[in-house]
Design a protein that fits this description.
The complex is a heterodimer of chains A (228) and B (309).
Chain A: H1 6-12, H2 15-57, H3 62-70, H4 79-94, H5 101-124, H6 127-157, H7 164-227
Chain B: H1 3-34, H2 58-233, E1 245-253, E2 259-268, H3 272-285, E3 300-307
Antiparallel strand pairs in B: 1-2, 1-3
Helix pairs in contact in B: 2-3
Chain lengths: 228, 309
């Protein structure tokens, strides 16, 4: 009689199969860490963008808004830092009276573009890790399984009477590796798809805001130059 | 990146790690419970092991057993002899002990006679002592009688005292109860008063809110009608426009009142030229009123444009 619990299967597997299993468990742990982290970061970015846009379009004074955003010691994120970069650049260039409105606006727009790409980089960080885990870990698990099955058939070669009972435990052990690979891959793929869409939507939102804000700045610059 | 941000990030990371570990533990538990009922895996039992034994050495073994039995019989004979010897010795010992027993009995008898003489003398003395004790008991009885009377009196006094104390306590309790009732009543009255005040406050706030809403609504109406008037003033009527035109116009503005877009939305019953002219009129307005209307400012404003001829 032999106990065939999950734990026994894992313990009795070959060294290489055990290594593959350990690797997969680590990958799964790491990908879940990334999943939870990203979820929080994205949710926060979305909430801040919503709040900020609401404040921005409610007709608040832009100078006051800028002071509030720039003075926020807890750090700026996403849409706020885009606004801050654009407005700072615009105020700085406005000091120079000879600049024409187009130059003024394009300077601000450039600053906002840089900030936007930096923000996107931050949001996309480590999403590629999820993609890697999602696509590679089934193969890793499969490798462990093939190796384990190979070994149990090799043991069969020396026996005179071959029964299925001689190879079945080895194959069962080896198949656990595939199960683990799938366990690591499925959540990673789901999360990757979900977060990719979310990041894309955020990018669209930031980009729209950037364009609209640039439009407002352009009008402002024209009015300034008419007055001068 | 500021330190606050970094701290926030670290906290997020710790939380994420905790959640990830929890997910894995949960899944492991599910797996463990799911695998609990797995049937055990049968492996063929090991084959029966049979050992062949050579019978040659058996004869010699039987001879050795015979010799052993003889030795045992001799040993038994020896033991019997020793037992008889021991019995004889024990008999002699018993006789010696009987002799000693008789001597002891004689001495005890003498001792008993002496003790009887002594007891007689003691009985005489005892009688004397009993007489004395009787007299003493009489005196004691009288004393006890006296004491009992005194104790009864004391008890009487004590009972009196107890009754007085009970009455006192009863009175105090009643007083306390009355005081508590008073407090409860007062508290209830206060609570009722407070409730009434709260209700009044709530009504007042609701009324204020309604008033503010109404003010806002009228302000918004005024705002929209101002916009409508501005647009009408800037409108150049194309010759094809028939009276009875009703068009909904959507204006998009930015803080400050500047118009950045205008379009016709449904419903609109005007022809193409009229629509174009309405949009052109809105764009010609250029800037909507802003001062004084901050509270009703909206990024997009819809209003109905009418022309009745």
């Amino acid at each position: 009689m032999e106990q065939m619990g999950i734990w026994e299967l894992i313990l009795e597997a070959g060294l290489l199969v055990q290594g593959v299993m350990a690797l997969l468990v680590l990958a799964s742990l790491a990908s879940w860490v990334v999943i939870f982290q990203k979820r929080q970061v994205l949710a926060r970015a979305e909430k801040r963008a919503r709040d900020f846009e609401e404040k921005f379009w409610s007709g608040a004074d832009l100078n006051a808004l800028y002071d509030k955003v720039a003075g926020n010691s807890a750090g700026r994120e996403g849409i706020e830092s885009i606004f801050e970069a654009g407005f700072r650049e615009f105020s700085r260039l406005r000091e120079d009276r000879h600049l024409n409105p187009d130059t003024l606006t394009s300077g601000a727009q450039r600053a906002m573009r840089v900030t936007l790409s930096r923000e996107m980089d931050r949001l996309e960080a480590r999403l590629s890790f999820l993609a890697t885990v999602g696509s590679v870990s089934p193969y890793v698990g499969l490798f462990g399984t093939v190796w384990g099955i190979m070994n149990s058939f090799r043991g069969l070669a020396g026996a005179h009477t071959a029964t299925i009972a001689m190879v079945a435990p080895g194959i069962a052990e080896a198949l656990i590796a595939t199960a683990m690979g799938l366990f690591a891959a499925i959540p990673a793929v789901i999360a990757f798809n979900k977060y990719s869409v979310q990041v894309e939507r955020l990018e669209l939102r930031y980009d729209n805001f950037k364009e609209e804000f640039a439009g407002i700045l352009h009008r402002q610059a024209r009015r300034l130059s008419e007055k001068a | 990146m500021t330190s606050a941000q970094r701290k926030q990030e670290l906290k997020d990371l710790a939380q994420a790690v905790g959640l990830a570990v929890a997910v894995h533990l949960g899944f492991g538990l599910i797996l463990f419970i799911g695998a609990w009922e797995w049937p055990r895996f049968d492996q063929p039992d090991p084959p029966v092991r049979v050992t062949l034994v050579d019978m040659g050495p058996m004869v010699e073994q039987r001879r050795a057993e015979e010799a052993e039995r003889q030795a045992a019989e001799q040993a038994a004979e020896e033991q019997r002899r020793q037992a008889e010897q021991r019995q004889r010795e024990q008999e002699a010992e018993r006789q010696r002990q009987a002799e000693r027993q008789r001597e002891i009995e004689r001495r005890e008898r003498e001792l008993a006679e002496r003790r009887a003489e002594q007891q007689r003398q003691e009985a005489e003395a005892q009688r004397q002592r009993e007489l004395e004790q009787q007299a003493q008991r009489e005196a004691e009885r009288q004393r006890a009688e006296e004491e009992r009377r005194r104790a009864e009196e004391a008890q009487q006094r004590e009972l009196e005292e107890l009754r007085r104390q009970r009455e006192e306590a009863q009175r105090r309790r009643e007083e306390e109860q009355r005081r508590l009732d008073d407090i409860a009543q007062r508290r209830e009255a206060e609570a009722a008063e407070r409730r009434a005040a709260e209700e009044a406050e709530r009504l007042r706030l609701a009324a204020e809110q309604a008033e503010a809403d109404a003010r806002r609504a009228t302000l918004r109406e005024e705002y929209v009608s101002t916009i409508r008037e501005l647009v009408r003033r800037n409108w150049n009527r194309p010759p094809t426009t028939r009276p009875g035109v009703v068009c909904r116009v959507r204006v998009v503005q930015i803080p400050g009142g500047e118009i950045i877009a205008a379009e016709i939305v449904r419903p609109c019953n005007a022809d193409e030229a009229t629509r174009r002219s309405i949009v052109a009129a809105v764009m010609r307005v250029g800037e909507l009123p802003y001062r004084g209307y901050e509270s009703v400012f909206a990024r997009e404003i819809d209003f109905d444009f009418r022309f009745d001829g």
